[in-house]
Amino acid sequence: MSSRDRTALALVVWAVMLSQTLLYPGVDRLVAAMGFGSGNYLDASTWFLAAEFAAFALAAGVWGAASDTAERRIPFVAAGAVLGALGYGVLALLGPTEPAFWLVLVVRFLQGAATVGAFSLAMSMLADLGEGNGRNMGAAGIAIGIGTALGAPIGGQLYAIGPFVPLWTGAVLLTLVGAATLLVADRAPEGDHEGVREALGALRRTPSLAVPFAFGFADRMTAGFFALVGTVYFRTAFDLSPAETGITLALFFAPFGLLQYPFGRLSDRFGRTAPIVAGSAFYGVVVLGIGTAESTFPVRSDALLAVQFGMVAVGVLGALMAPATMALVVDLAPGDERGVALGGFNIAGSLGFLTGVVGGGLIADDFGYPAAFGFAGGAEILLALVAIPAFLRLQISREKMFS
Fold first, then answer.
1. Where are the alpha helices (DSSP H) in 129-241?
2. Alpha carbon distance 12, 130 (integer Å)
3. Gap between the Cα atoms of 126 and 124, Å rounded
4. Residue 31 has pLDDT above 80, yes or no
5. Residue 165 and residue 248: Cα distance in Å, rounded?
6. 222 closest CA partner among 146, 140, 295, 279
7. Per-residue pLDDT tens for 336-374?
8. In the chain, what are the domains?
9. Which H or E element spans position 116?
C-alpha cells in the first residue's frame, strides 16, 4: 500500500512541476504575446516569474500549518490543484486581450498561492509514509526532476503551437492532480494543535531546521536563475529556439531528476553529510564556469558544448544534494509538524527561486550575463561556506532517518 501511495504522490508532485516548467523555455514570448516586454524580455519576464514564487514563499507555510491543524492532507492538496488549474486558465484567457500588467501579476500570484498547496502537501504526504525519509524524499526529488526535465523540452514544443498553449496544458495537468489525490490514503499524523499561528511556531521551536533551509534556498536560487536568466542567455548568446533552449535546460533537469531517488536511498544508508557537503562544494563553481564559457571559448559551438556539459554536471550535483537536504528536514522535524517543516523548506526554496529570478534578472539587465552568473555561483559558494559548519554540528541518528 505504501509503495502504491508513494507512486501516486510522486505523480502529483511530477504533474505540478511539469505544469510550472512548461512556461520557462519561452517565457519571454509569453509575456510579449500578452503585450509586455517591448524588446526587454528580462524585465517583464522577471516579474511574471517572481509573482508566482513570491506567492509560494508566503503561502507554503500557511498550507502546511492548516493541514497539520486539521490533521488532513488530501482536501488541501485537491483544493490547491483545482484552484491552481483555474489560475492557469484565467491567465490563458486574459493573455490575448493584452490586459494590464498588474492584473496579470495578481492572477499569477493567486495561481502560485494555490499551486504551492498541492505541491508542498504532496511532499508532506510522502513524508508521512515512513519506511525511510531518504527514500520518500528521493521519490519527491525524482518527481520534481523528471517533471522539470520534461517540462523544458515539451514547453518549447508547445510554444511552437502558440504562446498560450503551455498555460492551457498546465491547467489540464493540475485538474488531473486534483482527481489523483483520491487514490491515496490520508496518513496525516495526529497531534495537538491550537491553530494555524501556533502550528507555524513549530519553525521557531526547531531552530536546527535553518540548516537545510539555507541549503534549499541556495539550490533553488540557482534553479530560478536558470529558469529566467539561463533561458534568455541561451536564446540570445547562442541563438537557440525555444525548443532548443528547452533541450539545453533538460540537460540539467534530466540527471537532476533521474538520480535523485538512488541518491536519496544512498543518504539513508550513509547519512546526509557526504551528499550535501560534497555537492555544495562544487555546485557554485560549475555555475560560474557556465557563465564564463562564452568568453572562454572563441568558437560558439565549443562554448555551447561546454555549457551543455556544465548543465549536466550541475544536474548531477543537484541530484546528490536535493533528496538528502529534504530528508534532513524530515529527520529534524517532530512527526506531527512535518507539514509545517516542509512548508518552511518550500518557503526558503521559493525565496531562493525568487532571489535567483529577480536578482539574476536585474543584474543581467544592468551589468550583463557574466556578472549575473558570478552572482548566482558566488552566492551559492558563500552560502555553502556559511552553512556547512553548522550542518556538521548536527547529529542525525540512523533510527531518526527511518522514523
1. 133-161, 165-180, 196-200, 202-205, 210-225, 231-237
2. 18
3. 5
4. yes
5. 21
6. 279
7. 666 677 767 777 877 888 888 788 888 887 888 888 888
8. 1-191 (1.20.1250.20), 200-402 (1.20.1250.20)
9. helix 101-128
Which residue, among 38, 46, 27, has the nearest Cα to 235 in the 3D structure? Answer: 27
Alpha-carbon torsion 316, 237, 231, 148, what sign?
negative
Give the largest CA-CA distance in the chain.
63
Cell numbers representing residue 23 in the block: 512556461
End-to-end CA distance of the chain: 18
145 Cα distance to chain centroid: 9
- Residue 91's pLDDT is 95
**Number of neighbours of residue 266 by Cβ within 10 angstroms:** 18
For 70, counting Cβ atoms within 10 Å of its Cβ (0-12 exposed, 13-18 middle, 19+ buried), the class is: middle
User: Between the ranges 1-15, 239-253, 331-345, 380-394, where is the mean pLDDT highest?
Assistant: 239-253
Res 200: pLDDT = 55
Q: Looking at the predicted structure, is the pLDDT value of residue 110 above 90?
A: yes
Residue 370: closest CA among 292, 310, 314: 292
Q: Given pLDDT bands bounded at 50, 70 and 90, which one contains residue 394?
A: low
**Burial state string for 342-351 with b = 16 or more CB within 10 A and e = fewer than 16:** bbbbbbbbbb
| Average pLDDT for the chain | 79
Q: pTM here?
A: 0.76
- Please, how many CA atoms are within 13 Å of residue 18, restricted to the half-sphere of its CB? 24
In whole angstroms, give the CA distance from residue 358 to residue 180: 34
**What pLDDT was estimated at residue 72?**
80
User: What pLDDT is stored for residue 402 in this prediction?
Assistant: 46
d(C-alpha 133, C-alpha 341), whole Å: 14
Q: What's the rounded mean pLDDT across residues 51-56?
A: 85
Q: What are phi and psi of 354, to 5 degrees?
A: -60, -40
Burial class (CB in 10 A: 0-12, 13-18, 19+), 389: exposed
Q: In this structure, are residues 119 and 17 in contact, taking their beta carbons and an 8 Å threshold?
A: yes
